[in-house]
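--- STAGE predict ---
source: upstream dedup step, 1 unique chain passed
mode: sequence only
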Amino acid sequence: MLTYCNTRNVFVKRCTCRHQDDNSRPTTTLQGFLMFNSKLAQSLSLSALALAVALPASAAVIEGFDVSDAAVSADGNSFGLWTNTLNTGGDVHYSIQTGTTFIRSDDGTATFTGTATNPSGVGAIFDLTFTGFTEDYSVVKTGGMEEQDDWKFYTGLTADSKITVDGVDYFAQLVGAPDNVGTMPVFQYGTGANDKTADFGGSVWLDMYNAEGEALFGDNHWDINFDLTNNPDLVPDNPGSGVDVPAPATLGLLALGVAALRLSRRKQA
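--- STAGE serialize ---
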């Protein structure tokens, strides 16, 4: 059987070392085990607490909207996504499907996620994250209405933002970005901001790229024109929203650290 030697901080078959605090008793197996685990628990607690403090808090959702079509094609079909030269005829028009959402967070970002389908049944998947929220931007599209009292804007897109059409990923950036931001329209939303009608909605022009970062379609950008309907159920903090909010990682680590520290102190006692 191994016993723990406090003097040498190792496990040995038999410890007969004399210790400063007791010159008559060797360290027993149980004493050594408790001392070893006490130090381990204290080390784990300090590590967990340090990591919990270091991790940033996640952004909170502050507003959520259901998204729908804002445009109508010449043949009378409503649509929200226009893919320019990717398709031909009426197939350039994709109707936004139920379940597509626009969700704003308090860190100045917003997500636009969901699906759309063209008349031939080809599907598109939105996976866009907008950045750089601002309430003031001078270059706007006013096809819906001139007044801009409640308009707001996002001036950037994350590098992994994309629209997947028929299984192919097309990566998106704001038209002319980054050089033309400030001289070209960005993501806009508000009353009449859909660039088509006076309804509350939004619009954006997008340049598309392949996975290697090569520009596609020349100057033929894609458009999204959409209406927005406020949906409080998409905000996790709203009572009865039905949206589960996972505990932040920092809280879990903090709890682990506190528990380990208590265990350490209990064993030392």
